[in-house]
Request: fold
Amino acid sequence: MKNSRIRNYARVVLLILLLFPAAFLSAQQAQRAPKISPRAIAKDSRPRLVLLIVVDQFRYDYLTRFGDLFGASGIGRLMREGAFWTEANFDHMPTYTAPGHAVFMTGAWPSQTGIIANEWYERDTGRKVKSVTDDSTTKLAGLPDEKGYSPRRLLCSTVGDEIRLADGDRSKVIGISTKDRSAILPSGRRANAAYWFGTDNGNMLSSSYYFNQEPQWVERFNRRRLADQLFGARWDRLLPEAEYLKRAGKDDVPWENLDKSSKDTNSFPHVITGGAASPSKMFYKALDYTPFANDLLVAFAEEAITNEELGANADTDLLTLSFSANDYVGHRFGPYSHEAMDMTLRVDRQIGTLLDFVDAHVGLRNTVVIFSADHGASPVPEQAALMNLPGRRYQRSDLLQIVEDGLKAKYARKDRPAADYIQGFTNRAETEPGLLNGNLYLNRAALKRDGIDPDECERVVGELAMRLPGVARYFTRNQLERNQILSSDAVARRVLNGFYPSRSGDVIVVFEPYSILFDPPDDPTDPRPTATHGSPYSYDTHVPLIIMGRDFANGRYTQPATPADIAPTLAGLLRVQAPSCSVGRVLSEALISERRRVGAVARP
Ligand SMILES: [Zn+2]
Reply:
């Protein structure tokens, strides 16, 4: 009798382990509170899930240009039911992906997070690094023995870090994106995991920073080869062409410069093969430039919510999700294109799918949803010219040549060629002169050798840069380190907020509105960008900021706000320590006061 009961019990356990290996793993990982049904509202007034949704390169005006075409359950619902700030701007430059993504959950600018750009030159090692480079880690599910990424260069704690520190790691924090940096930086240093799309093999990758092997549900997801099923997929407009002609001009325009080898055209429909005969690296890279990449992310996020049981109990979990494909498409076609418009309409539907899923599994009543973007975008310079806007395209070599020639003219003597005053850095086994993100890096050893005062040389370099038409202003290290900046000067303030002494250059050059200095792509197989972002001007800084949840009073808020306000607002709501560097303000105008809510609950 007893034996058969033990046998039965063992059989049941074995069956559970076979059917639900993930359940066994997650049971090992943490002492989680009991599950609550999605329909029930937690007795504890804290939300069970915080969902940060970022769309990469989403200008504020996409809401006003295309918002009437949004569906019922996506961004349109957030605009209708959420607290919606119409004047949210980033307050740093360069307005790039990594610095922007580091702001949301730290509440801090690059001057504190240390994430000054997507890539920068590292003086200690003499090389170019990415914001998430970490050679002490390996990539999981990538190519064999590939070096990995981590949040170790992020110098501040995040909301996710603080909620895990506060509850003994019972909360789960997960970051997901197509781009590595956009998954890793918002989730933070103490995250359980970050996952991103690998263009070498079509897998969702992670890093040994988080664990030695990806969870079984991720391995199962990768085995489904969902990306491969999209080979040859045809991307056409969601709505009739007339809507696009009305709002985004002509489709077939000369500045949209598609790589010939991709066998794609610069107008709809786009057939996605990357020029390859079967799924391979060129195809996976091409997939990044389509709405299908966002579909993959939604499918993966749903798996994460289910398998990691996000929002299933009273310990608040955090999921950060960043849609990168909108940025890739924006770079290729520009903000006034049929493709950018279609990506916007489609990401609205994709967010709707995800929100419906969250509602069914967690309950939107138990969730705080935040919607924002890491930066906007400038029009394609050639298109801007046709629109009678100022500005033009500049290449890196245009600026470098003027500065190098000028330095020689000023300082060279018979015994002193003055040819090495710009610091060289290694990048992919080659040495390149230190000009990146509008930052010029001086060779301090060479200046010392030749007895040149670095402060003076910074000013000389800045004045030389001003000779290039399109350069508006320059800032020197000396000026920024001594804080000789008027905070009422928005451009100067944004430069200062983007400056981190040990990572930034010595002279920072700011271009006039609509003029852009294009850095060549780091990977030579990447196409040259048509449009870009990075400036301190409103087309790059002005982004959506919407928070939807039962603690936020629905409505439009015209007060100035920034994406750095999200983190301190959430920390207050979740009753955890504000992230270490947080300088944003609590968005109190939209918070339904604790007293009112407690009063409302107490009444019979
Ligand atoms: Zn971006």
Notes: The two ends are 53 Å apart (CA to CA). Residues 13-28, 599-604 have pLDDT under 50 and may be disordered. The first strand starts at residue 49 and ends at 55. Residues 56-57, 97, 327, 374-375 surround zinc ion (CB under 6 Å).
